[in-house]
Amino acid sequence: MERQVFNPYLPAGEYIPDAEPYVFGDRVYIYGSHDRFGAPMFCVNDYVCWSAPVDDLSDWRYEGVIYRKNQDPKNRLGLRLLFAPDVAIGPDGRYYLYYAFDFMGLMGVAVADSPAGPYEFHGHVHYADGTVWGRRKGDSFPFDPGVLVDDDNRVYLYSGFYTPVPAIATGFRSLGFDGGYVLELEPDMVTIRTPEKLLFPKSGPGSFAGHEFFEASSMRKWDGKYYFVYSSRLNHELCYAVSDSPTGGFRYGGTLVSIGDVGLPGHDDETRATNYTGNTHGGMLRIGDDFYTFYHRQTNRSSYARQACAERLDAMFDEASGEWRFVQAEVTSCGLNGGPLRGQGRYEARIACNLWSKDGAGRYDGANPAKRLAAHPYFTQDERDAKAEVGPIEAHQYVANMRDGAVAGFKYFDFDDSRPLTGIAATVRAHRGRGEASGAFVISVDPAGLSVVATVPITVNTADGWQTFRAEPACLPAGINAHSCPLYFRYAGSGSIDFLNFELMTR
């Protein structure tokens, strides 16, 4: 039976936000930050790398630690954190890794002879006189690098941030925060060749009103056009812009993905989000004429345990303009699978792409989200984080704290006409410290719960541990597209449950 791939596409215990995907040779590599489960801050771990064969995006391989934060001579004690990186092949054929240390306001570069490293410190981006970029009066704030080595081997570095950072955080002084910038580097990949230029102002003319630049610069070049991906001031979405030049003239293209599906029909604003929102960051991948957007989702009622996800994009090539155009992707459970998941077998609840309480969803950024969203469901795990040297742990991630009216949605499944659905089982437990829970999962093919597939009765006590409950028979309502079918698990009852997995049973 063919292997499937889900969202998040890495193991349950791995937390890689900000992932930039690239094809090097016959493999896809992702480079991202590295969150630590349960940490009080972003990006606490060292950089690691994952890769998969170009023709099998279900087979992700852990490449290990590729760069440690204390390898940079300005961070020998390892106290500063490695934020979102990017990688490019230099004119010399080697691989260059760009990174910013949290809010320190400087850009580091490391180099390796192969995509998965190990990488060694190469230098800090600096002017010809040796002055480090970010330390000269008038400099912008070096943050979230995006790197492009063009066909003529000219090197462009993109950077920028929306929100001013106090001088105490940079260790130097307050820097420019007017939006997204570009500067050109020498072939050595570290010396500034041309002064920085504001490309994406955060306000005023050319600011893409309603979707202004916030952070997360990422650049690609396809068929002679330049595609800039960024996170907008809305924070929960990735947008793109297109130009004929790497240094100007960008036109707003649209939204690639929102982690709460905000912007899709019926989800006009965050009050109608299908999932909990916060920051997201990523890039685009092209394999032949298939395009994907890579992004991250939030977990654990915080912004500090984010997981890598991806969706295939609906793309159209416009002959008149010579541009690729993309439709906003829906967040799904089957992202890189190449189609819906099989409508049979056992699935982990952690692959839910939709999650909300009876009062809707909410944002994980801002003040004290765990307290503010105490009555809401969330993704979490019981196990502690592992050290990167041994790889991600075999965590049991699950949906926690589902109270009356909470919904976990999964999209999409392909139910084989020759093997119809006959039953559904769900494995749950009473949420810790909440005593007994009694009610049912009402499983439907619509978010409102009107077209019911099955009702699974549930009665659990804190002392019981994980328990499996079944509903037989179960069947899809008439008129439903069985080959692209969503399932929504709505808890109706008292108490609070944790949801581990479910099984779709067929004849």
From TrEMBL:
The keyword Hydrolase applies. This is Alpha-N-arabinofuranosidase. Keywords: Carbohydrate metabolism, Glycosidase, Hydrolase, Polysaccharide degradation, Xylan degradation. It comes from Bifidobacterium callitrichidarum. Belongs to the glycosyl hydrolase 43 family. GO terms for molecular function: hydrolase activity, hydrolyzing O-glycosyl compounds. InterPro entries: Glyco_hydro_43, Glyco_hydro_beta-prop_sf, Glycosyl_Hydrlase_43_Enz. Gene3D superfamilies: Galactose-binding domain-like (2.60.120.260), Glycosyl hydrolase domain, family 43 (2.115.10.20). One of its GO terms (biological process) is xylan catabolic process.
